[in-house]
């Protein structure tokens, strides 16, 4: 299994429960597809470098996980169509 780092920027106008639900959705998707979550780091609300969908802030979350390449592709596909996620990026870490 390969090691990955996922950064997700969630809409800042969601309440705490909705934000946690998005994070839990991502974690459960990783675990249900044969991956394992090593660490979840919540950075909190931060200013964006530029406006995205008329928003100036975003809630940043970094998730380190292990999984196969198919998991990374599926995660990318689902996050692209999730309305509560402004941006995301998956990076494969060096061994």
Structure description:
By secondary structure, the chain is an alpha+beta fold. It is built from 2 helices and 4 strands. The protein has a 4-stranded antiparallel β-sheet with strand order 2-3-1-4, covered by helices on one side. Strand 2 and strand 3 (55-67) form a beta hairpin. The longest helix has 17 residues, at 16-32. The chain starts with a strand and ends with a strand. The mean pLDDT is 94.
**E-strand count:** 4
**Radius of gyration, Cα only, in angstroms?**
13 Å
Structural class: alpha+beta
Output the strand order for the largest sheet: 2-3-1-4
Provide mean pLDDT, rounded: 94
Percentage of residues in strands: over 45%
Query: How much helical structure, as a percent, in the residues?
Result: 25-40%
Shape: globular
Task: Output the helix-strand order.
Answer: EHEEHE
Major β-sheet, in short? 4 strands, antiparallel
Number of helices: 2
End-to-end CA span: 10 Å
Poorly predicted regions = none
List keywords for this structure.
95 residues, 2 helices, globular, alpha+beta, 4 strands, four-stranded antiparallel β-sheet, 31% helix
Secondary-structure blueprint of this entry?
Blueprint (H helix, E strand, L loop, with lengths): L1 E9 L5 H17 L3 E17 L2 E13 L1 H12 L4 E8 L3
Antiparallel strand pairs: 1-3, 1-4, 2-3
């Amino acid at each position: 299994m390969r090691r990955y780092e996922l950064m997700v920027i969630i809409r800042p106008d969601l309440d705490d429960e909705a934000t946690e639900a998005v994070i839990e959705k991502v974690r459960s998707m990783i675990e249900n597809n044969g991956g394992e979550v090593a660490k979840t780091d919540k950075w909190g609300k931060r200013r964006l470098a530029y406006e995205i969908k008329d928003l100036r802030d975003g809630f940043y979350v970094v998730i380190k996980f292990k999984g196969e390449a198919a998991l990374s592709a599926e995660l990318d596909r689902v996050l692209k169509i999730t309305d509560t996620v402004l941006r995301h990026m998956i990076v494969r870490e060096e061994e």
